[in-house]
Design goal:
Two copies of one chain form a homodimer.
Chain A lengths: L12 E6 L12 E16 L7 H7 L4 E13 L5 H19 L6 E8 L6 H14 L4 H10 L8 E9 L2 E10 L7 E2 L3 E6 L5 H13 L5 E2 L9 E6 L10 H21 L7 E8 L3 H13 L1 H8 L5 H9 L10 E5 L2 E5 L2 E2 L4 H9 L2 E8 L2 E10 L3 H8 L4
Parallel strand pairs in A: 3-4, 8-10, 9-16, 11-15
Antiparallel strand pairs in A: 1-2, 2-3, 2-10, 4-7, 5-6, 6-8, 11-16, 12-13, 12-15, 13-14
Helix pairs in contact in A: 1-2, 2-3, 5-6, 7-9
């Protein structure tokens, strides 16, 4: 019986997590499968990096589509910077899954995450795939295993699931992702699979997943390093029979689910001791607000100040200042954890010790107002600790 | 008698370093003066940050000029984010120096570096200035003291001086700078004063210092954080009587001097264990090469890999990939310390242990070729160590 505390899957989806021996520890799960019993409208959002892994190239050319039947993901090897052979291997993975699910190879999507520049151990993958397919189930337990099978340096699987009442009836939306920055010599990645039994067209799926990603996975940063494999899929198999005529409600639910998953990545960020939310408001438009939020989030000096529970407003304001956007210092107001410490360009007297103590509890909320425009952005990040440096500088042969 | 091993000053310049008590340790030098016995053609390059310190605003509006007589610099307090009173204080500093040198206040330039958001202790500065002026001398020892008086978290003064044979005769060029990233709750800064006895017009000075800064101070990064006070001045007092008709030779000398000083900043970078040179070639133009070099230099994952002596080409190539410029992976070739490890998009077999050992000696040279175009850029950076995090996260009340 399925554990009711675990997130559940939408109707018509089955998943699996299996250990093929791709990772050095053969007991660790490293192959995740996501299958729908009927074709899905599917869309994807991919890394903006010019250097992309083979699976990104293969999946990208298959989307958007109305014929997607499943996704196969391996961890432990990114299949990136592997040239023609890498592309052949990625296609072979989809063909092997298609053989098991009795569909066309082009109906299968593929992702890989892990060490870069090594060829996939295809014999292990093809040997393990039939067993993985046998495991396919719609239980919360197997959903959790699929999440574990995507993990590299993650310390916990990242799942979400819920139901949404639309005009036409109730639908389900579930998602799973992985990500925790990167660790030598691995190139880890942000991957997510969102599944719903709502009825969507491929074009609807593409529009809605792109919007949701902007507000979630594109609004987090651990170290500002865009991986070669970042991928988010949305699969809609229509099993509920409920069409999404009310796009606003579905979009809101998808945004929420992606945001929850994105925040789990930040909570699992390598070496992190603080969870940081950055709100930027008052800019002429959301794009400008997003740009400033990102620069503040990625400033090493802001991050290290937060590590030290230091409400160092000078570092935050000056980081905003080098985002490349014009603004007047007299329009800048800053609050940390609810205490205004810089107002209209002037530093205020404030209870520094109290603010520092509130930061020490591990949650930091930065409210940066620049101007009186309608543009706003919310961004999440982690701090920068010696442990991050240790994790990422340890030399492994 | 002047120590011949110290860099010397050009004819007509005198300098001083004095302790006014701005820093908490009253024995530490914190006021630097640079004076010319005749008016200088002068130009400056300033921070691109939208939030700038009061001295930047005051100095910027006075340049370029043919009437500059001196520069006053204090350390220990950045006079930034201090509003109208900060501007008044900066102007008052120049007026006080002008009174001593018997010139117009507009002939004096000003810089401040140190803690942000605090008003300058003007009574200490005005009390110390006459003594500082009495110290003005053209000796190498006093030149070194002026360099020390600019330091915040720097561990050594950064000076250079030399002579250049131009067509019209011999001229001298000397410079001094400070910079070593930032430390809580200080906002440190990159400041430099370049002095020559060559004859230059203000327009020549502006053009040449802008070019030199692009190739030196704008081609280094410790943590990617643009300070609110970054400033480089070039003062040409013409005392040699030699006009710079051969701009190429003078530009080369100025470039060299600025580059040497910039490299001293990287060698003094907070917590750094590696000095890193990044050469990017093959792009359509220098701008694009510079952009990629900067992104690689500022990647936390590249920096931590270098800390661990790890020739992690995946991090370097993928950092180049997110610089926002189009290129083909098959056009990318990478060498570290002379060993090619990635060629035309394909990883090579190479002696990993040997390359790692060469990195462990503390100097890392990254050669990144992307395409066959004429664009190139050379950039310098440091690694990212736990010591940097410790220095920048320690909370000081």
């Amino acid at each position: 019986m399925s554990n009711p505390e675990l997130p559940q899957l939408p109707v018509g989806f089955r998943v699996a997590g299996h250990a093929c021996g791709i990772k050095s520890d053969p007991t660790r799960l490293d192959l995740a499968l996501f299958a729908s019993d009927r074709p899905c409208a599917a869309a994807g959002v991919f890394t903006q990096n010019r250097v992309v892994g083979a699976p990104v190239q293969v999946s990208r050319e298959r989307l958007p589509s109305a014929e997607i039947r499943g996704v196969v993901i391996n961890s432990g090897n990114a299949n990136a910077c592997t040239g023609e052979r890498g592309l052949e291997d990625a296609r072979a993975m989809t063909a092997a899954v298609a053989g098991q699910l009795e569909c066309n190879a082009r109906s299968i999507l593929v992702c890989s995450t892990g060490v870069i520049g090594h060829f996939l151990p295809m014999e292990k993958i093809t040997a393990g795939l039939p067993e993985a397919c046998k495991r396919l189930a719609d239980s919360g337990e197997e959903f959790e295993r699929s999440g574990r099978a995507m993990m590299t340096t993650d310390t916990f699987p990242k799942l979400i699931g819920g139901q949404i009442e639309l005009e036409g009836g109730r639908i389900a939306l579930s998602g799973v992702c992985k990500g925790a920055a990167m660790i030598a010599p691995n190139m880890a990645t942000m991957l997510a699979v969102m599944m719903t039994d709502a009825v969507l067209s491929p074009e609807q799926a593409q529009q809605m997943v792109s919007r949701a990603v902007d507000r979630s996975f594109n609004s987090i940063s651990v170290d500002g390093h865009t991986s070669t494999s970042d991928t988010v899929f949305l699969l809609a198999n229509g099993a509920s029979g409920v069409t999404v005529s009310d796009e606003t409600a579905f979009q809101a639910a998808l945004d929420d689910a992606c945001r929850e998953l994105a925040q789990m990545i930040i909570r699992d960020a390598e070496g992190a001791e603080h969870f940081v939310t950055i709100d930027v408001t008052g800019l002429p438009d959301d794009r400008q607000a997003h740009r400033i939020a990102k620069v503040v989030a990625e400033s090493m000096l802001v991050k290290t100040a937060i590590t030290g529970n230091d409400p160092n407003w000078g570092r935050i304001v000056s980081a905003a200042g080098y985002a490349g956007l014009p603004f007047d210092e007299a329009d800048v107001t800053l609050a940390i954890n609810g205490t205004t410490i810089y107002e209209h360009g002037v530093p205020l007297e404030y209870p520094e010790e109290t603010v520092s103590q509130s930061m020490a509890r591990g949650e930091v909320h930065i409210d940066l107002t620049i101007g009186t425009g309608p543009g706003k952005s919310r961004f999440w990040t982690s701090d920068l600790t010696s442990e991050y440096v240790r994790l990422n500088s340890e030399y492994t042969t």
